[in-house]
């Protein structure tokens, strides 16, 4: 396996940028998810890595070898990159073992070694008992595991996965997420995984590149994206909660700052001296009869073991979790605990400094 590097990658379609100066390093053996809304450029970045498209500028390297850029271009078939598509792309007339064996037959790998490698790939993907079945006799999840085994058998330098679970129902997706995680643990493969499902990205990846409008907005661990988003897009796109503009700020001390929002002074975590917004996750909103913030319940939905409340304050909407059902229209009081204050690059700095901070 090998690490992937993207340096200043841009790609235009009919003059419109699909990717705009992408810079990212994927370490050898790392599982990276590309997450973002439809049209943000995820698939384009994957296709450039596979060699199905050529970048207009910038360089892509794999294990130090330039795949594209600076006049060089390695053809897709010479990149030794495994690809798993949403649509499985299995041969219907071949058995499971026949499908998995095919890339080795093309490379003229001798029979005994082929058999050994196929058996190993089927074992890793939990398919040993299905070796003689036809793809039509398998479930969607099993077919996707055949595609994974077929990609693995060729001993690729990196594995690209394009929304591989999009065609599966919810229960199967959860089971397949575990299968992918186990596959990654056992193979140590460098993986680039495209999805627009944040639950999937946060559950599976070592790091997630959140994309929007052809750019990477933030590239960080799932925990960092959730706890410390770096702009309003990431704060709103990843996880639940509210993103609120600040009206004044104090001076940060030791990673904390006093800010003004919701008509209150709130103590927030921060790593910026000039935050413009706070991101308030549901766990940071406490229903508290002595709390300083008044709100009215506008929605209450059961989420298995807890209720999700949508709460309207005078000017903003917050989300909280509660152990018991709340009545729509009910008035409650809230306190906030360690929300995250950040500087949104697209927002002008707040000039007003808090009087008593
Ligand atoms: N071959 C093409 N010709 C013209 N425009 C294209 C082509 N491929 C992609 N685009 C455009 O480039 C942008 C990025 O597309 P891309 O498929 O990479 O997005 P995506 O994030 O993978 O979206 P989705 O989640 O819907 O698959 C889109 O605006 C899309 O319309």
TrEMBL record:
SUPFAM superfamilies: MOP-like, P-loop containing nucleoside triphosphate hydrolases. Residues 4-238 form the ABC transporter domain. Keywords: ATP-binding, Nucleotide-binding, Transport. InterPro entries: AAA+_ATPase, ABC_SmlMolc_Importer, ABC_transporter-like_ATP-bd, ABC_transporter-like_CS, Mo/tungstate-bd_C_term_dom, P-loop_NTPase, Transp-assoc_OB_typ2. GO terms for molecular function: ATP binding. Pfam families: ABC_tran, TOBE_2. It comes from the Bacteria. This is ABC transporter ATP-binding protein. It comes from Paracoccus fontiphilus.
